[in-house]
Design goal:
Layout: H1 8-14, H2 16-29, H3 36-49, E1 53-57, H4 60-70, E2 78-82, H5 88-95, E3 99-103, H6 114-120, E4 125-128, H7 140-150, E5 153-157, E6 178-182, E7 196-200, H8 203-213, H9 234-244, H10 247-267, E8 306-309, H11 313-322, H12 342-348, H13 354-362, E9 363-366, H14 374-388
Parallel strand pairs: 2-3, 2-4, 4-5, 5-6
Antiparallel strand pairs: 1-7, 6-7, 8-9
Helix pairs in contact: 2-9, 3-9, 4-5, 4-8, 10-14
Bound molecules: pyridoxal-5'-phosphate.
Length: about 400
């Protein structure tokens, strides 16, 4: 049996005629940049997330970059973020000559550790970027409390978490000052190329982001500020408008798949429960925690990734690969160990983030996409069981 990490073809086949007619309509309209489809997408995203403004942009990375530009991040400003995330979270900070201040993660959720944040706050700290990694919200109450106490901005990196809910029913991306999403094809809501969106409830920030999106010009060719080309293509918006209708259904299927994995791992005695953080004879596989499950939320976790931890991770990955099962490591190298950030350890002393380092050595993402069948999931668990026998 073959179980790819992600099978975008299965999704495409299920909505093929709708997608193709939306793309064809865009081609025939000759409107390729921004345009009516982007306006429709922005309104639909506001409605889906329950926020006031959404601004379509060129990628998730540019969403983060333009968000930092909108809050006037300048050279030397310090931005606190988890050391364990996709590169863009830290890359955008360094690109503005600001300083990424790394913090460790919580080993249950893989999200930023709130108690590590306060220790890192200095008079130069301007913002915190919590990442809702793998599709589950970071501990936003604690983060917002710190932000209010120290007058910091919060930019949520919700690239992996569209639709994920936090306590109190608010959705990822709408809790901080600005939320950033990615429409990279492998995200839960993926385009047919690069794309992203920035959301906010703040009138001034929304207006500024719209101006920054078109090189900072308003009116056109008159520049009070310097922006960039952060525009979203019409064709991406047309595709996303079709797909957004199915997003909740797909997220439910991802949750169903995660539940089935959890059940099977427990049934097969590879794990004793979800959210365990220590290995022992009853927990050779550590299952991902669902921190907000049972709080009455529909989308407590949207499983952009279903990530387990195992001790012989690389060996298991190879074993699965030989048996037709695709996996990935998100992420093998935390930021503080990246060559491009070594200059920061010269300034701040040698870093040691033990949780992030453990995660980098032990995490493995299994296939979780909505169209996965029960047989495929059983085969993955069965194969992992055989590996440990
Ligand atoms: C995907 C992703 C991004 C970047 O999004 P792109 O659209 O690929 O630029 C940023 N942060 C996180 C956590 C991501 O997963």
């Amino acid at each position: 049996m073959k179980v790819p990490l992600l099978d975008l073809k299965a999704q495409y086949e299920s909505i093929k005629s709708e997608l193709e007619s939306a793309v064809l309509q865009t081609l025939r309209s000759q409107k390729y940049i921004l345009g009516p489809e982007v306006d429709i997408l922005e309104s639909a995203i506001c409605e889906y997330l329950g926020c006031k403004y959404a601004v379509g942009v060129s990628s998730g990375t540019d969403a983060l970059l333009v968000a930092l530009m909108a809050i006037d991040i300048k050279a030397g400003d310090e931005i606190i973020l988890p050391t364990y995330s996709f590169f863009a979270t830290a890359g955008v900070v360094a690109r503005l000559n600001a300083i990424p201040i790394f913090t460790d993660i919580d080993l249950k959720s893989y999200n930023i550790l709130p108690e590590d944040i306060e220790k890192k706050i200095t008079p130069r700290t301007k913002a915190i970027i919590p990442v809702h990694l793998y599709g589950q919200c970071a501990m936003m109450n604690e983060i917002m409390e710190l932000a209010n106490k120290y007058n910091l901005k919060v930019i949520e990196d919700a690239a992996q978490a569209i639709g994920a809910e936090y306590k109190g029913n608010c959705k990822a991306g709408t809790i901080g000052d600005i939320g950033c999403f990615s429409f990279f094809p492998s995200k839960n809501l993926g385009g047919v190329g690069d794309g992203g969106i920035v959301v906010t409830n703040n009138d001034e920030l929304a207006e500024k982001i719209k101006i920054l999106r078109v090189h900072g010009g308003k009116p056109k060719y008159y520049h009070k500020i310097i922006g960039g080309n952060f525009r979203l293509d019409t064709i991406q918006a047309a595709v996303l408008n079709v797909k957004l209708k199915y997003l909740s259904d797909w997220s439910k299927k991802r949750q169903r798949n995660a539940d089935l994995y959890n059940e099977l791992f427990i049934e097969n005695k590879l794990a004793s429960g979800i959210g365990e953080t220590n290995f022992d004879d009853e927990n050779r596989v550590l299952l991902p925690a669902a921190l907000y499950k049972g709080m009455g939320l529909e989308f407590y976790h949207i499983y952009n990734q279903y990530v387990i931890r195992v001790q012989e991770r690389n060996k298991l990955r190879h074993y699965l690969q030989e048996r037709g099962i695709g996996t990935e490591i998100y992420y093998p190298v935390p930021f503080h160990k990246q060559e491009c950030f070594l200059y920061l350890s010269e300034k701040f002393g040698r870093f040691s983030f033990l949780n992030a380092e453990r995660a980098a050595a032990e995490t493995l993402a299994l296939p979780i996409y909505p169209e996965l069948t029960q047989e495929q999931i059983s085969y993955v668990v069965e194969t992992i069981k055989n590996f440990f026998q």
